[in-house]
Design a protein that fits this description.
- There is one protein chain.
- By secondary structure, the protein is mainly alpha-helical.
- It has one domain.
- 78% of the residues lie in helices and 2% in strands.
- The protein contains 16 helices and 2 strands.
- Strand 1 and strand 2 form a beta hairpin.
- Helix 4 runs parallel beside helix 7 and helix 5 runs antiparallel to helix 6.
- The chain is globular, with a radius of gyration of 21 Å.
């Protein structure tokens, strides 16, 4: 009876998390509207400069994050059930250390990006107009990192609704509104970047309010984390940080190459298509955030049978979510992909994600949490 209740509880948490994250993906329609507004009223070149600058800043922010979001999810899932004074002290120390590392690293990354802006803009993209956008978006890196850290604290509690509310609701909406408000000023890429910085700041403040409300019971005074625990945490997060940078760099390679080898206007056009095709990853994006804390808790408590059943459940859902692509390739092998576009003078194809790589990402990456 206990196993049945546990299985239902895990499935309910997975289902609720998937639902919240799917709603968040749908809420990102404001981001899709943003790229259309930007292209229509600011021009493709302005959108392209913004997209290139943000791609570089976003990749750099993963170094500033240094995997501390995953560490927070893991540690909160493992230790939040300990309500003793010592347990609260330990958890508070872990949270403080994670935020300290993330804040210092993000400030260093922002400084490095600000100083390296001219080199990146001229040597790689051959766009002198990209210098100012890169330097301005460097200011957003600490806000982006803090937002992800604050939201990670709620993920450790298996609460996905705040990810949806803040990062996939408030932030894209503020970005869209800011872009609309700045249209009369004819600010070009600086208008888009200004709206982005404001949206990042608002998201960081909103996420901070949520996290403080959820963890106010821990208090404000905590002893410094021991050297051994600091080393263990950094050993855990360092490979994750490097993997996150490489993964994001690979996923942005296409748009970076468009900007470097063609021009910023083509990068802007390509960015519109990328936003549209992002819906292909909807199932994986919905499951991955909620699966990690469940795995962390069950692995820490050595509940291997529940862990196995959760892997089986998630694998089935991922395969079911990717069934459309398998069906399309099985019965319409000769049909061209609806995700192909051409940007003169060369063709560019946006290949949709296979369900099996999506499944392997969740199944093999989750134990890291």
């Amino acid at each position: 009876m206990v196993d049945v209740k546990s299985n239902l509880s895990d499935a309910r948490d997975l289902g609720k998390g998937l639902l919240y994250n799917l709603l968040g993906v749908l809420a990102k329609i404001s981001k899709a509207l943003f790229v259309f507004v930007a292209a229509r009223f600011y021009g493709l070149e302005a959108l392209g400069l913004y997209v290139l600058a943000w791609s570089v800043a976003d990749i750099s922010s993963k170094l500033g994050l240094w995997g501390m979001d995953k560490s927070l999810v893991r540690d909160i899932a493992r230790f939040n059930t300990d309500r003793s004074a010592q347990g609260k002290q330990h958890l508070g120390s872990l949270i403080y250390f994670s935020f300290g590392v993330g804040l210092v690293a993000s400030l260093l990354v922002a400084l490095g990006l600000y100083l390296a802006g001219p080199l990146i803009a001229v040597s790689i993209f051959h766009e002198i107009q990209l210098i100012v956008p890169l330097r301005l978006l460097a200011l957003a890196v600490p806000f982006v990192v803090l937002t992800q850290l604050f939201i990670a604290t709620t993920k450790g509690l298996r609460m996905m609704q705040y990810e949806v509310l803040v990062r996939q609701g408030i932030e894209p909406l503020v970005l869209l509104v800011g872009t609309l408000v700045l249209i009369p000023f004819d600010a070009g890429p600086l208008g888009l970047i200004s709206a982005h910085i404001v949206a990042s700041l608002v998201a960081a403040v909103a996420a901070c309010v949520v996290a403080l409300n959820k963890f106010k019971h821990l208090g404000w005074k905590h002893r410094p984390l021991g050297k051994k625990e600091k080393v263990e945490t950094l050993r855990f997060t360092s490979p994750i940080a490097l993997t996150a940078v490489l993964n994001l760099a690979v996923s942005r390679t296409d748009i970076l190459l468009v900007g470097a080898l063609i021009n910023s206007a083509s990068a802007g056009l390509y960015g519109i298509v990328v936003e549209i095709t992002a819906v292909v990853k909807v199932v994986f994006l919905g499951l991955e955030p909620v699966f990690a804390p469940i795995v962390a808790e069950l692995y820490h408590t050595q509940q291997k049978q529940r862990l196995k059943r959760n892997y089986q459940l998630v694998t089935r859902w991922l395969l079911a979510g990717g069934f459309y692509r398998l069906w399309h390739w099985r019965y319409f092998p000769g049909k061209s992909s609806p995700y192909s576009i051409s940007i003169p003078p060369r063709p560019i194809t946006l290949w949709p994600y296979w369900p099996l790589p999506m499944g392997s990402s969740a199944v093999f990456a989750a134990p890291k949490a």
